[in-house]
Amino acid sequence: MQTSQEHHSSSSLHGLYHQPLQEIDPYRVQHFHIIENNVCPDTGSQGTTVSFQPYPEQPQFFTLDSSPATVGYIDYNSPSATSFLSNRSPFSPQVSHSCLSDQHHSPDNTYGSPASGSSVADNGNEFKHKLREIEISLLGSESGIVDSCHYCPNSGIHTFVSGCDWNQLVQVYPSLDLRKGLIYCADAISRDDMTTAVDWMELLGKQVSVSGEPIQRLGAYMLEGLRARLERSGSSIYKALKCVEPTSSVEPTSSELKSYMTILYQICPYWQFAYKSSNAVIEEVMANEPIIHIIDFQIAQGTQWEHLIHSLARRPGGPPVLRITGVDDSQSFHARGGGLHIVEQRLTKCAESCRVPFEFHNAAMSGCEVERQNLSVQPGEAVAVNFPYVLHHMPDESVSTQNHRDRLLRLVKSLSPKVVTIVEQESNTNTSPFFTRFLETLDYYTAMFESIDVARPRNDKQRISAEQHCVARDIVNMIACENAERVERHELLGKWIRRLSMAGFTLYPLSTSVTNTVNDLLRQHFHVNYRLERRDGALYLSWLDRNMATSSAWRC
């Protein structure tokens, strides 16, 4: 998540390369597609996959297109489509277990819908019976919305869902618990119960809205991730949206992406938290160093270092010599509207105006490709390394034997830096199986969408675009993709502490001065529900009681 007024990157608040919001009220986008013989990102095996058709009178609220190439659609109301969607044969055991469910998911997991069974309602009470079942599954047995009908505890969700008149059900049952419904749908997918999953998607699709409450907005993107997982198109979405440059007039331009980042930078403290805390630590550690070399593994627009240059210019006795090496990739290239020479020109101009001796080094490659010779480290300089929301993108030992995450840390250790600053989302999605990861993603992004909600009206088109282009893609990636195709792999601070300790680093406790710097930022510019806590030598940024991000510093 990288946001500044001209700042872009590629993590959970990173710029999202996606079609801009269409001007339709209330920002609902219909969803038609089918993918045939699509390659499963997990195994490379092929299989026919299903897709869905929304009811004409009930437009779907989805905002992303799960299919890169639309070749048609299945009419869900037709007998042939119903038969096809109810038939498990398109999902062979090999495809189902490797691509749709997680092999680590426990068969003993009972979280979600009850086991399959038969309905006991007669024709006259059939609809009431089905309504009562869905009420009990979502609200519990104490709810009294529907009475005078018999409930069979062994009948499954898909039994009554597949036979219901969905338009009638939604009209009679507007108080659907969307969060629980999403969980039931994900649970069905994790158990390879495609019939139940499709039924839930039909119902949930009528409840989500990109201009609604936080759970409705998040639900639109969570549901899209589930749909993409079912269709095995999550990787296609992520790659399509991670374009190097616009390929059509409907894709966001560089200036549009910058504007989306500006919105989130202004209304959320996540990136300013990273900038302020890292800069304060670097300036504190480098207080007496005459030559400072900062290696930034996510340079983006370089905005962070303008603030540091201004601060170094005020150093008693004169400013130090400042060298900055910027690591870059094609995604930031597009968001910036050009290569790293743009950052160099910007920072050089800033340094000249502040009379700070300055040199910029270009390392135009992703972090996975960086080698020591790319970093231009020179004798006699004090090195600081900055990892702002970027390490979780490095695949670790669970993805590849190359283990770029630990390799990069060992490389940095070999530079003997005076300080390493790391800011990461406080979330656990790296090695979690699908269903556990879905629950964690739902919990984390519920808090994020609630934090965004207090800053802008729900029908604000700029906020809608910012969420679509800066958050949604990462949600889809975490839910729909597996193995190397899943690049959003967050770890909790406790895991980072163990990983960095094994690489030979020691935690550098953040000082009261650093804490006060960030506290001032939160008090002056952001909602009172944001909290800051210094714990175990690190800073935790929270929304209410949910930890959202951590900032830590390390020394060799």
UniProtKB/TrEMBL annotation:
Motif VHIID, residue range(s) on this chain: 292-296
UniProt-annotated stretches for the region Disordered: 95-122
Bias-annotated ranges (Polar residues): 108-122
Region forming the signal peptide: none
Compartments (UniProt record): Nucleus
GO cellular component, one term: nucleus
Region annotated SAW, chain positions: 480-555
Keywords (A to Z) from UniProt: Nucleus, Transcription, Transcription regulation
Keyword match Ligase: no
Chief location bin: nucleus
InterPro entries reported for this sequence: TF_GRAS
Lineage top rank: taxon: Eukaryota
VHIID: annotated span: 261-326
UniProt entry tagged with the keyword Ribosomal protein: no
Region described as Leucine repeat II (LRII): spans on this chain: 342-374
PROSITE patterns in the cross-refs: GRAS (PS50985)
Homology family: Belongs to the GRAS family.
Name of protein: Scarecrow-like protein 13
Organism: Quercus rubra (Northern red oak)
